Structures are given as structure tokens and as C-alpha cells.
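On clarity, I found the account of how folds are encoded harder to follow than it need be. Since the whole study asks how a given chain folds, the encoding of that fold should be made plain. For illustration, here is how one protein appears when written out as sequence plus C-alpha cells:

:::
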Amino acid sequence: MTRTQFVLATLAAIVLAGIADATPAAARDYPWCAQGGEYDYPGECAYSTYEQCQASVSGRLLYCDRNPRVAYGQVQQPQPHRRTRPVAPY
């Protein structure tokens, strides 16, 4: 394997590892959702402010509304990380 092939293979592995570890955007719950058209309920909930949502839906035949999971307190709290290895005794 030449040096160039090795570098390319290493870069490809790093990119794949980054993609595999990424959290999907749909898993995030922001307070505002773009609703209607091509989106199922509750919609595309990727907006921190109403203004951001309005800018995104402009010209797309969509509307903005509150994310029901946030509005009604159904957002799951992140679970604390557990230690995977035991701590050495003192």
C-alpha cells in the first residue's frame, strides 16, 4: 500500500467514525417546529426561536408551531454516563 492510499484510507476511516457517532438532527427537540406539507407531526423541530422557524418556512407553504414534546414536558432527559471501568481503590 502506498503512502497516499494509506492516508486516504485513514481519512475515510475518520470520516466514517464521525458519521457513525453523530446524533441525528431529528433526535434534537427545539421549542419550534415547521409543520405542514412534507412533514409528519410534530414536524421539523429544529428551531430555537419563532423567528428562525418563520425564516425557514417562508415560501415553503409551511407554518410554525410549538413543539408539543417541549410544550407539554415530554422531552426525555439525557441519561448520565456510566463508568465503563472500575475505579481503583485508594
About this structure: The helical segments are 3-21, 50-57, 68-71. Strands lie at 32-35, 44-47, 63-66. The chain has three helices and three strands. The longest strand covers residues 32-35.
